[in-house]
Amino acid sequence: MVVLGAGIVGLFTALVLRRQGVAVTVFDPAPQAARQSSWAGGGIVSPLWPWDEPPAIQQWAQAAHQVYPEWAARLRADTGIDVEYRRTGIRWWLAEAERAPAQAWHRRWGLPFTPCADGLLSPELGQVRNPRLGRALALATRAAGVDLRLGAKAVPLLRQGRVVGVQQTAGPAVWADAVIVAAGAWSAEVLATVGLRCEVRPVKGQMLLFSPPPDAPPPGPVQVSRAVYLIPRADGQVLVGSTLEHCGFDTRPTPEARHGLHAAALALCPALARYRLVGHWAGLRPGAAGAPQVGPTAVPGLWAHFGHFRNGITLAPATAATLVDQLVDEVTGSPGCVQHG
Fold this sequence. Notes:
alpha/beta; 6-stranded mixed beta sheet; 7 helices; 30% helix; 26% strand
């Protein structure tokens, strides 16, 4: 199999395939793995507003919630990297009208919650440190025998109406029984090379990182409002995000976003005024409406695994398992939004 894309989604796909004994090659034109959508968010292992999401996302999110502890332990054993998966809890700041849907969602999925002033606390949900997760997955794929080719661009190779592998920009063709498009914000460009189209578009997300003062209190839960989220890390640093910007493939951080995120974060947590800003960056999410595309496309031999938008880290272990089950068992499904264009 060939996977196009070495983000969190593509790397989880490769590892799940290897668990099934499948030979896998991963291509990504970037020189480093997991440095776009993975860096446009903070690693919250839950949709930001799960009760607003379609059922498919809720189901995948709950499946991932169950398997993340196992993945974190396995990655640490295989690579020595602690991805800092922690069930720190999420404290949602909610308007009055949002509280009943939020409580109903927790009851539906059997998750405990505690009502609190201006919202509720969900103690079993939490986070993973996304840069560490990306590094660990890249090391683990190589250790598992995946041929991980970074800095190498490839596109699906079409023969007699079927994808039979990929053609490298600088290198020979690589033949494969199936090609999986997990190219994040670039997925539409990849599909266009074989006459397919989809609605995935890049959405820039800018992030801030703050370092704590020496007397900072111990890290608390993740805090989420409609304006901003704050993610306290195990070492006391606080990650703040994130913008939603439709500006093509531009990944430049901007002072306007820095000021806006900082002001929103201070409004939510005034104590952050004593913290020092130490980082500001941007990444590109695969913006799409609804659930991710997971399954066969309209072209035989080409499979979709993209469109996770803000839920890539949250859903990746579960959507990867779904896709691999279909591939290995040769189960066909609807092409969804992937259509001939």
